[in-house]
Fold these 4 entries.
Entry 1:
Amino acid sequence: MERFDYLVLGASHAGLEALRAIRAHDAAGSVAILDRESVLPYSPTVLPYVVSGKSREDRLALRSRGWFDALGVDYRQAARATAVDTARATLKLADGKEIGYAKLLLATGATPAIPPIEGLDAVRFHVLRTLDDALALRDAAGAATHAVVLGAGLVGMHAAENLLRSGCRVTIVEMRGQVLPGYFDAEAAALVAGAFRQHGVEVLTGRRVARVEPDGAGCAVHLDDGEARSAGLLLVAAGVVPETGYLAASGVALERGIVVDEFMRASAPNVWAAGDVVRTPSFFNDATPAGGILPDAVEQGRTAGMSMAGDPAAAPYPGGIPLNTYSFFGRRALSVGRDAPADAGADWEVLTRGGGHDDAGYLKLVLRDARLQGIFGVDVLFDPGIMWELILRRTDLRERREALLANPEDTARALMSALWR
């Protein structure tokens, strides 16, 4: 049986960053990375652009084979795990082979969540999580005249715009009261939904699908109020769940994902985890959603890799801070951090400008004790990475909050420039 000093399962952002961190401290240890796909690693964030044709499937690779070779990493494709035996420190693959490890990183990401809708299993529907999904959706979009998208998260909204551009009439159904719930505040979401409606997309929020049934070459989507929509193409974009099916009886603790500590160590010995597969605390130590975004995956992968390699510079993962950028119909929405809770006390402050039909854009700052908690904007320029740093550093904005509202980009850059000196 083969055995490696470091075994990385999953080859997207978290796994790749972990490799870089491992090799930065340990140039000699044996390393293998197992990719369940048969193509070079890519980011799931580009898949909507594959559907639209803006990105070619042969130009998506995050890393070349030469990159792995230069690091002395054994990169293997089409390697899907079926079981982990932490007592024996082995990983079993779908082809029956076993691989031993001294240290294991689980970075298997997430898989589409399929809602329990009556009749869904009897009709053809699409999801969008892999390159194969994107290619299948692109091909189907060319033949459909009316598409129904279940879910108004980033995947669903991106896909809806691309389906519209392909010539489909599009209906979006979202069970929550706004589009992009969990990503943007209500005002920003209303501006996004308004833009979709202006372009002819039917946006139904606060609505549920009761059942679906076959209807000719497509299906009929029955809503909770008795109305129905005919769909030649049905896309289920109801979120994702961590890919943990291979961990049954492994001894790795699961609670809506792999439970990890501040150095991304799982409950089983010599096992780490990072990326969409983990459950991590929020930076804000509250119910704010954590994880599930690319910067978090990179940060978690770096933390895990440094910890695995015993790098003394390894720092605890600070917790998730939501960060999202979203382009739609030539416009841009940005969000970093959290909104104010409904029961916010006197220590909270919310500053806004614009909104509605204001051509100057919309901006909202959320502060607590004069420290930035969240920032949301539509058609207003600011650097999300710098805002993320201001939140992470708990920078006191008492004297600069009005300037930040008036000119967020330049004010934040000046603040960070002073902090970095």
Entry 2:
Amino acid sequence: MSHSYRLLAVTSAALLSAACATRPAAPPITGPTPPAVVPKPVSPKPANALAAGVTLASPRTLTVEQAERALPAFRLSCPALMRRTDPSGLTRGTDWQPLCAEAAAVQPGSAKNFFETRFEWARVGTDAAFATGYYEPEILGSRTPAPGFAVPIHRTPSDLVRCTRADGQTGRGRIDETGTCVLYYTRADIEDGALANKGLELAYAADPIDLFFVEIQGSGRLKLPDGSVMRLGYDGQNGRDYIAIGKLLRERGVLPPGGANMESIKAWMRAQPDGGRSLMRENPSYIFFKELTGPGPLGALNVAVTPRTTVAADPAFTPLGAPVWLDVDRPEADGLWVAQDTGGAIKGANRFDTFWGAGDYAQVTAGGMAAKGDALLLLPRGTVERARAAQAAATLAANAQAQP
């Protein structure tokens, strides 16, 4: 078929050349020269919450259920809140110490008053909130390779390191044979055997599409042949950019706007001759797993995430461990959450990913979640005033530097 197409193209080109040889030259175009198109300046995206701007908002009214559910998650987050550096620039570890001490002493039934009165509520930036959902899927798998279980699930390789490449960028990569830091293997590289025979196989999945969506979720359960369950937790990523395949299908008109939910994407992939393999390879990001034996999947703070309470956020705009209030156009996502996780696609201010746990309800809710609305952070008192002072100082310094 390709040979016939090429012959047609050559023949058409020859006919076009012959026609041009006998056609009189076109008269020159006269008239005013159209004005040059001047591209509109593109404002740089803010690097963190301080650059995006933060403003005080009035506290919202919580339900008792929301507050009581969020309190244990906030307590679990407190050690990390007090210890880690906050890349959002909004808080310091010492800011959280009084709140964490108080949270430890809150009695049952008093969580609502604690969250409503002991924090200041703040809005970061001016964009509307956008919330998606994730869950803990269960797929068929085996600890050892067997007929029907041939898709390897990999541990984190030892040669995946942080290093500085020749272009000056520092991130996850590997040191090649010349001692140079280069990007790590892509999904296609790994599927083609880049990690074979290295003893990195943690387990084996029955279906590559199912495993792909476990990677997107970041954790999952393997239903083993004997009926037992092996839990998988996120352990690393190859450093490659995450490409959303649902977005690709919408942009290409394969699936309609609003129709690219998880089930429709899976159905389209399974209908392809290659089982969706080429589409999955357009997302070069690859996730490495470890076996979990604790109470649940672990989030970015290395604590178990809680269904209907944990939300993934961008730590450059939301302090990890902080409570987050959502009011969106999907009522089931309204209420108080705790930022305990991150995600490759969760970038920017007011971008969140709500965790729904495991099971059919969790899968349906998370798979169809695409909610817009409002988001507020609950922060230690005095945070916003300090942030605004820092913003003003940075603006003055930038203006002074710009003066001739």
Entry 3:
Amino acid sequence: MSLPVDHDTVIVGGGFSGIAMAIALKAAGRDDLVVLEKAEEVGGTWRENRYPGCECDVPAHLYSYSFELNPYWSQTYAPSDEIQDYLLYCVEKYDVRRHIEFDATVQDAAYDEESSTWTVTVTSSWGTLRTLRARSLVLAVGALHEPSIPDIPGMESFAGEMMHTATWDPGTTVERKHVSVIGTGSSGVQIIPSLAEDAVHLTVFQRTPAWVMPRTNRQYADRLIDTFEQHPTALAAHRARLKATSDLRERGLTSAPRLLKAASRLALENLHSAVKSPQLRAVLTPDYPMGCKRILLSSDYYPALARPDVTVETDPIERIERDAVVTTSGRRHHTTVLVLATGFDPVGSYRYLGIKGADGHLLSADWDDGATTYLGVTVPHFPNLFLLLGPNSLLGHTSDLQIMEAQVGLVMRLLAERDRRHTRSVAVRPQVVPGFVAELDRRSERTVYLSGCSSWYLDRGGRNRTLWPGSVGEYERRTTRPEMVDYLFT
């Protein structure tokens, strides 16, 4: 049975991956598409994360589209507002905005086997409800988008200002206030130096110390920017060097941890040069292998923690009161601003979507014991559904955007093959996925990610369901020349 569709492709999410998918579809002449964005503007992570000190920890020339190199980055690691401006530029240049519906939150989506189409239910902030039917559904919802909120007794009783770093109000000021920050991961390391400058007193609640490498964030001289602008080949060569050197770090994380020894020494030198107190140094020294958690970059984090008006608290939090955070040791830290730098749930964006595939399969139920996909893009029993930056496709050593672009390319190849065969649907064969997951588990076992610490890389069962345990080059090869026998065309 053939039913009329509203669009050939529905893309959920207007961040880096959703915009890239729309650009690729348009370039291939598949411009019957809509991008559903729940907010009032594109940008995803970079629209929402506006906290002080927010920057990307990947060099800007690598954290951008390979097909749209930007000669105008102001510094090595771009601040969030520059990245957001870059995305807005791409949306206009590639005429994507006319395909975007804002204030469009996807509530659920169901696959109809008889017509080989997806019916997507969309709500707005006004409470309106409508449905869209499409041949293909692309979930570009982001892996680091759904804030992880700790379950601490008494949080509801806190009378001061409380916010997650991802919901930071740009008008917030901490001057003459007592501030507490929970979390010392990527966002914590970035926001803490800024807060320490203005707060009367800052208390940092650290569960586990991080490995922090010094960061050289140099401003690009006008002369170099002009060179990149006038000589695109020089800019392309610069990006290629960044890509190659960054991907070399993969071996130290996945197969040869001994290669991280020199980096570990550099991180410890960074700590010792900034923190003179032996007691504080001991508190900030990791007792797990480098790379087991995300390696952080900062040259002002340790100096901020060494300030006399900053306290590093390592005792677990017992409860939160109206104006204080109380630890298990009984210490009561007076607080008027509470900042949750607690990161994100890597599969949270999928967990809250009701995605129903063929034969009654529900994505959230299928993933209850661990998120499983094929190459992070396709899921068995979910025809014509494609994920971007899905499980096991993030990176711990370089720019995720390289994986994302490879995935966009894979989706385009699968759609082209579906058309070439004159079939209505494409899905990964269910028999293929267990072997692929077993490969990931086997390879992950020898990585530093499973060397004993607890991190957001691992699921509840302690399995790596977040990172790709290999190089960018390998992933690109596997997606550029996919084995079409692994897919079922119906």
Entry 4:
Amino acid sequence: MELRNKANRIRLFSFNTPQMRAFHFSWFAFHLCFFGWFGIAPLMAVVREDLALTQTQIGNTIIASVLITVIVRLAIGVLCDKIGPRKAYSGLLLLGSLPVMSIGLADSFETFLLARLAIGAIGAAFVITQYHTTMMFAPNVVGTANATSAGWGNLGGGTTQILMPLIFSGLLILGVSETLGWRLAMVVPGVVLFITGIAYYRFTQDAPDGNFDELRERGELAEANGEHGAGRSFLAAAKDIRVWALFLVYAACFGVELTINNIAAIYFFDHFDLTLATAGMIAGLFGLMNLFARTLGGVFSDLFARQGGLKGRVRWLFIALLCEGIALIGFSQMHVLSYAIGIMLVFSLFVQMAEGATYGVVPFINKQAIGAVAGIVGAGGNVGAVAAAFLFRAEAISYQQGLFYLGLAVLVLASCALLVRFSPEVEAEEAQAYREALGEESGAGALSLH
């Protein structure tokens, strides 16, 4: 069944409609999840000294931080199909806040590793964010809505690189030792996550016309037939080769972003001999590009769709991935700080546009299993991050060499985008839905500031 009353325009400063409340709450919640997820990354130079961690051990904690997310993302999409994004997001935020606040209790590599493993579960917030905006926005603007909500969420990967060292420094000014400072600093994002979880449940709803349980009672939404229904949804998605092609594509873009979020600060700290605060500030620029870069990926996806339909969306995804790989290889070869920053920003632009382009395609793969498709593709990002992390845990491979090999991998995986194809019937159906969604509005990805 097709949900009714989806918004065909994003009115950024409106909070009156359920569509825009879901939009703003979803990106803000995901933004905070990044604070919890990667809040420790810009403080790793301090943690390394405190817990006497080796490069291999640091690499293992990076793997742990993204490994568990693979499993949770696969499950959370199906859970959204069953109970709705409102309950799924609220539960994830409340439960996820607990390990974020308690990571400060770690006193060894093993306990720190377990804490990062548990925290990684909140990375599944991305799938719920994309699911919720997909429920709320029409075909002409869904690419922009998905890309913007995810992009402003990913922005947390940049702001945490900047703000966590400042929080840490503020604690030092108050007389707290470095050993205690990084532990107390992590309490801040944990508390905010808990509060946001309560607010998400209170102020959002699953779909434009109500929550899933209400829609099912009115016969406006198909029943979630327990585990069997969820299983059918997942199997339908898992049998589609296009889903796994997008799985690999997302590994090549979001997987790379997660990797950079984990290593950027310590890379600039070590390679260019910078202070912790300066390294964090520069690393933060990479994530801050999410303010507009991922949105651009979605906007271009919607614009390409206007002229070329679903084929246009796929074509744009391939272009973005190709440019990302070239820019990453260039970044890996930089030895002058100013050049490294410049090419990093170009690379950041394309990696995030590729992410937006990916989820400009996802909503059209299987409308009966949106959650399962979003979950599998989203998990691909974390699989990519896990695979990439092995490059950076090996003592024999420098971070620069690891970045170069990663760039080559992106160029190879870009070809997977071309495996995503749609039947002529689906192309025609979506082209008609696109025209109908435009209605009286002008332009693809209609977005306004009022």
